[in-house]
Amino acid sequence: QVQLVESGGGLVQPGGSLRVSCKASGSISSVYAMTWYRQAPGKQRELVATITRGGITSYAPSVKGRFTISRDNTNNTVYLQMNSLKPEDTAVYYCYQTIQTILGGPFNYWGQGTQVTVSS
Q1: Do the Cβ atoms of 51 and 69 come closer than 8 Å?
Q2: Helix, strand, or coil here: 85?
Q3: For residue range 32-59, what is the model confidence (pLDDT) as tens digits?
Q4: Which of these, 7, 56, 76, 98, could form a disulfide with 32 (CB 3.0-4.6 Å)?
Q5: What is the layout of strands, in order, in the sheet containing 2-7?
Q6: Count of beta carbons in the 10 Å neighbourhood of residue 56
Q7: Residue 89 and residue 97 in contact, taking contact as beta carbons nearer than 8 Å
Q8: Cα(109)–Cα(107) distance, integer angstroms
């Protein structure tokens, strides 16, 4: 059994910063890629940023230069530091991890989502 628990969402003013995190727990052998997606009301879920186990990152053009993805392999946690936030960044942010469990895999898991609202 593997669970992803997200935290850190909230309300922030335009231009502000916020950090969300996602910790995987359970019967984990190894975590491969870690990814953040987001979904705004009435829109499709979109990829925001991803990081490999080795630390290679990639970003959606809309967030490049403003968001930073990082990970702590010891604690199976991924972070998304969001700076210079804009109202269009408002969405539910989901983490997605590819995990090798002690029972097999790799399998893909989603977090429950955390709301980020950028508004004055």
Answers
A1: yes
A2: coil
A3: 999 999 999 999 999 999 999 999 999 9
A4: 98
A5: 2-7, 18-26, 77-82, 67-72
A6: 9
A7: no
A8: 7
